[in-house]
Amino acid sequence: MKDLAVILFAKTHANEDKNSFFKDIFLKVTNIFKKKEINIDFEVASIYSGLNVYFIKLPYSKANIENMMPQKLNKLLEGVKSFLDRKSIIYCVYPAGVHLNFGDRFIESNFFGGHLFKGLFRRVIKSIYNENNIDPDDLNIAIISGEEEEETNGLLNVLAPEVKYLTIIDKQKDRYNDLMDRVYEKTGLSIVLTEDLRTALKTSDILINLSQSIKPASRTRLKPGMLLVNYGKIDGLEISDDNVVINGIEITYKEFIPEKIKMEFFNFYNKLEFLEMIILFSITLDGPKSFDFSDEYVRRVEEEFDKLGGCIKSFKGMHSFLKRKDVLEKVKQRAVRKVPRH
Fold it and tell me: Which of 61, 206, 320, 334 suits 94 as a labelling partner, its CA being 20 to 30 A distant?
């Protein structure tokens, strides 16, 4: 893992006259006809052994950066790149919503929690049911397959070694025949494959949706107490107040951000964003990517999450965040019933 740099903008624009450049010790020109020496104002946080995050504090607001003359902006970015080179840092993240392309090595923050929500889906389910002394692996889990076959395949490969009852809901059943055979040979699990969403939901305790366009023959209502872990769109389902829909997570973790820049940092990033950023850079050598479900991805995300002292605090519901105790109470009634066997 290489160290990471994160850019912070000034909340209000610092004075840009020549004296301000020397006063802020940011762009220091020793000789206008010679190579320019640029000093970067930064703070560093040691996340754990082998990983440091450098917080680069630019003396310009977001608006000032966006309206900066190209020559001046390029000079500024070259100074940041020189700093990255001196610290052997490959990538530098800047806040989302900047209407500029900073170029190579600069990555706009798009770490909105979706990657962690995927990588921690086992933790999401277990954190709900284990607190009710229920093993989720004994429950019926149904998956509404998505448009990308690889995503459903990855999720099946993660779940199959652990669960006892698993159903795939898909109108194109043939595309999973080979995978089902491999899963059975490897784990002994017989996966139920069906097109009938309504029938599958009658015996399911947990529904994982990967589809962006659920289109049942008629409006389909979820049973009271059913847990829906949603990675797609659920317009085709009838959701009641007795259901639990989870669209994301809220987390806590150990404090890493230096006290003196906390206020500056949280002007541009949030906790979930920062943790996802660190984890994704930690598990790949060539920068963050869009990950689908896979054994390796889930394992690495869980390992890094634990290493960083992560904890799932609450869940993002349909309209607001759901407290853990409220989620536990809703799912308990359905989960404690006898689990039917296929």
Answer: 320
My answer on whether 96 and 131 are in the same domain is no
219 and 329 housed in the same domain: yes
- pTM of the entire structure? 0.83
Are residue 331 and residue 210 in the same domain, yes or no? yes
148/88 same-domain check: no
127 occurs within a structural domain: yes
Range of the domain at 78: 4-109
Count up the domains in the chain and report the number. 2
**Is the same domain home to 120 and 103?**
no
What is the 3 state secondary structure string of the chain? CCCEEEEECCCCCCCCCHHHHHHCCCEECCCCCCCCEECCCEEEEEEECCEEEEEEECCCCHHHHHCCCHHHHHHHHHHHHHHHHHCCCCCEEECCCCCCCCCCCEEECCCCCHHHHHHCHHHHHHHHHHHHCCCHHHCEEEEECCCCHHHHHHHHHHHCCCCCEEEEECCCHHHHHHHHHHHHHHHCCCCEEECCHHHHHHCCCEEEECCCCCCCCCCEECCCCCEEEECCCCCCEECCCCCEEECEEEEECCCCCCHHHHHHHCCCCCHHHHHHHHHHHHCCCCCCCCCCCCHHHHHHHHHHHHHCCCEEEEEECCCCEECHHHHHHHHHHHHCCCCCCC
Q: Is there a single domain that holds both residue 127 and residue 100?
A: no
What are the pLDDT digits (tens) for 51-77?
A: 899 999 999 999 999 999 999 999 999
